[in-house]
Amino acid sequence: MKAGEPISPLEQADRRPVLVWDVPTRLFHWLAVVLVAGAYATWRLNWMDWHVRIGETLLALVLFRLLWGCFGSETARFRNFMASPAAAIRHLRHVLRREADLQAGHNPAGGWMVMLLIALMLGETLSGLYLNNDIADEGPLTQWVPAAIANAISALHSILWDVLLAAVALHLLAIALYAVAKGHNLLLPMLTGRKRLPASVAAPRLAPAALALFLLAVSAAAAALLATYL
């Protein structure tokens, strides 16, 4: 069956649940949602100590996702879902076409959205760490960075936050569009990890949980070092 063709009753019956999203990937997704919302709330309430702690936690989480994207499960690896810009554009041309969902992982456009969100969260957390150390006069770089660069980092932190919120809104809009226009439920698989796929679509290979725990420990240590020395 090709994308764009209707699903026959036989093909529908041939579908079986497949674990496409592992636990580390799902935890990253939902913890990132909670932490970004927490960062926004603490910023609005001027709870800056909590805001900083949330930022440091989010940085560790993003660093983990970068490592998991290199060494983790098949659907989490960047090389497996990062399509060319031309492929993403071709996919978006048919975004309103109702068709069968045969994708075990991210679609070509979704992969670019994932990378954009990760890049924005990384830039926001790193610039936030520098700003916190600059205000508290704690970081070893605060005395060596020229004022113009420090001001640029401050402006970047504000700009990236606005862009991040816009990207999150676009992400939510895309989820709703895919549900209504294409009949694809992108939310449920990220909750359960499973998607019903034809037998012709192979189940993705999953990385061991021990590797995820090791990479998380490495990421937490790296975030702590950056918080100290940035």
TrEMBL record:
Domain Cytochrome b561 bacterial/Ni-hydrogenase positions: 20-193
Subcellular location: Cell membrane
Lineage: superkingdom: Bacteria
Keywords: Cell membrane, Membrane, Transmembrane, Transmembrane helix
Pfam families xrefs: Ni_hydr_CYTB (PF01292)
UniProt key word Transmembrane: yes
Membrane topology, record value: Multi-pass membrane protein
PANTHER family named among the record's database cross-references: BLL0597 PROTEIN, NI/FE-HYDROGENASE 1 B-TYPE CYTOCHROME SUBUNIT
Protein name: Cytochrome b/b6 domain-containing protein
Lineage: Bacteria, Pseudomonadati, Pseudomonadota, Betaproteobacteria, Burkholderiales
